Amino acid sequence: MNRGDVGPDGSRPVVVRVRVPVEPVEAAVEADAVDAVTRAGDVVVRGPLFGVAAQGAGDGPRWRVVIEMTAGCPQQARDGLNSLLWFRAKDEADDKAERRALLAAVARLEEERVDELAVAGTRYRVVRAEEYAGTGPAGIEQPRPTDPEPLVPDWDRAAKDAAVDDGLVLDPDAPLTPSQALEQLALRGLCYTGERFPRDVREDALRALDTHPDVLLLPPTFTVVERGASGWRPVTGPHATAHAARRSLDFALTWMWPRMHGHIPQGAHPHTDARTGIPGGEPSAGRRTTELAEYAQAADTLRARRVNRLEFQGTVYQIARTRRLLRWGPDGPEGPRPSDTNSQDPTRIHPALDEDGRVLPED
Predict the structure, then answer these.
(1) Residue 51 near residue 73 (C-beta atoms within 8 A)
(2) How far apart are CA 251 and CA 269, in angstroms?
(3) For 183-214, what is each residue's pLDDT tens digit?
């Protein structure tokens, strides 16, 4: 019986295919995962993230992630789908009929909160994932020794990082390692229960245990977090690698935060940062140079080795190993829940196209 099949009594079996890693690198990753349970075996949940998955006619039960699952609200994922279909209509449509179908879907996304569309032979669905992290006596989990790292770290701001969820296929029948299977089974019952959650959020979470009883684990992501009075909070969005998260912290220390705090003028040359200093003889340049040196020194500490925790101006910053799961039901991955909030309304994002893919004048 396959995952998602329903028995005569309405029950769904727990079917997990387990394989034992034998290849040396994968075996080391598995051993690292087992060790991580002893260091950070508890789970803290941050909340939902959203993306878009697609299913073609020959995909079977599998779905492909086409918009990375990192958006903070469903509408951001819908806007991403809007852009995806608009560019497909502009640059990839085979004929006018396909372009009309794609543009009709775009028009709906400009006006409605649409969570699923079927267009040009493909189903698109806004998908909901739950973001969480391991925690233990030492705090929130940091990158593991076997998480991918570049042999030679590239700190160039223009360097292109690997995209989160690039090419990811959601396959409910894919075999798992023992540690993955245990984690997946342990999180099947994950649900919002605390009184700090609104009643509709708790009710939707409880309902999802029945409508989408299975769980799929997504690849880990890495986020810069800072420790405050109420716990850890994210400073940057999820990254595909720990080094990409470190580079985002380096950018914040040397470029973004000095501008935010007035140590570098907003109109300064884009290449001006805490390391280069401020050219010219401004009266306040000496004070700014001293403060910028502190930012540069913190960034140099980050670059000296694979630093995952850094204290700067009384605040602790950390590279957190964040994880995501999505719930899975008979019809595939879970979409947004009624209680999920949207930070924006649907809107027009791109100019109109004609049937030949030409951009029409605004007037």
Answers:
(1) no
(2) 15
(3) 999 999 999 888 889 999 999 999 999 999 99
**Under 8 Å between Cβ of 244 and 234:** no
Query: The whole model's pTM is what?
Result: 0.89
The pLDDT-based confidence of 342 (bands split at 50, 70, 90) is very high
**Residue recorded with tokens 């670059």:** 303
- Please state the length of the chain: 363
